[in-house]
Specification:
- By secondary structure, the protein is an alpha+beta fold.
- The protein folds into two domains: 223 residues, ApbE-like domains (T-fold); 86 residues, ApbE-like superfamily (T-fold), CATH 1.10.3980.10.
- The chain is built from nine helices and 17 strands.
- It has an eight-stranded antiparallel beta sheet with strand order 2-3-7-8-11-14-15-16.
- Bound molecules: adenosine monophosphate (AMP) and magnesium ion.
- Adenosine monophosphate binds next to helix 8.
């Protein structure tokens, strides 16, 4: 699936010093283990804190196995993934899917409702037309107009009892690139807890979920990248049992005649959305944080922040189209902005 590239960095420096500490016997401190691998088209970094090195290691391994398992269900880059099979059967038949795929698609439809259709997983044909992740090109207006009838959530039918999904029109394609990594982070955390981790971080580039606290008792620090200053930080926030997800127009883009064309598309126009430079959403679950960051990016800074203020346990930092930083009311005393943002 076309997942976004890195833009949020987890401040895990404190872990490096801890990973050599052996725990296990009473009174010894917990141990942190961190590993990084490529999955879902991006760098996945998993850190687990356990009572022993073996426990922390096992939790990290379990986390990666879960991410790989979900990729095989949800990726549209893998021809026989469940979602690829749903897409291949568009206009013909319903396809039976796993509970996980069903959850992602049903939650996607809920995010679509919350964002007035700004989040739309039927965006697949338009994503393909721009092919920003592979061979970026500028589709013609006529080409995009012809695709508009396919970007139609009313034609995505889910049957919860049969656990099946049917795309009504030939040529429709579901793309969960805007929500799937957040879900994968949630699920990885579940298996890590089961494996005995007492705390940890799962980061699929900018989709990050944390649980528990660092061995020194501190909450996990997370840094948000500046959307226009490469390698610079916009803000820092600490998280506990929370997820953060960032959608930015700097992640995947190309420029032509001075115009930036990026990977987050407005379902109305099928053109790159223009209302924001970046949107970071904090929520309890990664699936909400990830779905909402994309939807809010499309809604634009003003409508997006209005939505955040209405939602419980959802906070956001939005950089609008001209670079102004908006912080939701519940986050203002938790965020440290870089001095020269
Ligand atoms: P994110 O980085 O979470 O904003 O996700 C971006 C990815 O979501 C893109 O690469 C597309 O695969 C997909 N996408 C693009 N536009 C939309 C949209 N309006 N609604 C849902 N998914 C989208
Ligand atoms: Mg997203």
């Amino acid at each position: 699936m076309p997942f976004k590239v890195a833009m949020v960095l987890v401040g895990c420096l404190s872990f490096a010093a801890l990973s050599c500490v052996k725990g296990g016997s009473p009174g010894t401190p917990p141990v942190a283990v961190k590993r990084t691998q490529m999955h879902m088209g991006t760098l996945v970094s998993i850190t687990a804190v356990g009572q022993t090195q073996a426990e922390a290691n096992a939790a990290v391994t379990a986390g990666f196995e879960e991410v790989k398992r979900l990729e095989l269900l949800l990726s549209t880059w893998i021809p026989d993934s469940e979602l690829s099979r749903v897409n291949a059967a568009a206009g013909r038949s319903a396809v039976t899917v796993s509970a996980e795929t069903m959850t992602v698609v049903r939650k996607s439809l809920q995010v679509a409702e919350l964002t007035d259709g700004a989040f739309n997983i039927a965006i697949g044909p338009a994503v393909d037309a721009w092919s920003i992740s592979t061979e970026p090109r500028l589709p013609t207006v006529e080409e995009l107009d012809a695709l508009k009838p396919l970007v139609d959530l009313q034609s995505v039918h889910t049957d919860v009892w049969e656990r099946s999904i049917h795309l009504q029109k030939p040529g429709m394609r579901i793309d969960v690139g805007g929500i799937g990594k957040g879900y994968a982070a949630d699920q990885a955390v579940l298996v890590m807890r089961k494996a005995g981790a007492v705390a940890g971080v799962v980061a699929l580039s900018g989709d990050i979920k944390t649980f528990g606290r660092l061995p020194d008792g501190e909450a996990f620090p997370v840094e948000i990248r500046h959307p226009r200053k490469e390698n610079e930080i916009l803000a820092q926030v600490t998280l506990q049992d929370e997820a953060i997800s960032t959608a930015g127009d700097y992640e995947r883009f190309f420029e032509k005649d001075g115009v930036r064309y990026h990977h987050i598309l407005d379902p109305q126009t099928l053109q790159p959305a223009r209302g924001c430079q970046s949107v970071s959403v904090i929520a309890k679950e990664g699936i909400w944080a990830d779905g909402l960051d994309t939807g809010i990016f499309v809604l634009g800074a003003k409508r997006g922040m209005e939505l955040v203020e209405q939602l419980e346990n959802v906070e956001a930092i939005i950089v609008d189209d001209v670079g102004r930083v908006l912080i939701s009311s519940g986050l203002r005393d938790r965020v440290v902005l870089a001095s020269d943002h």
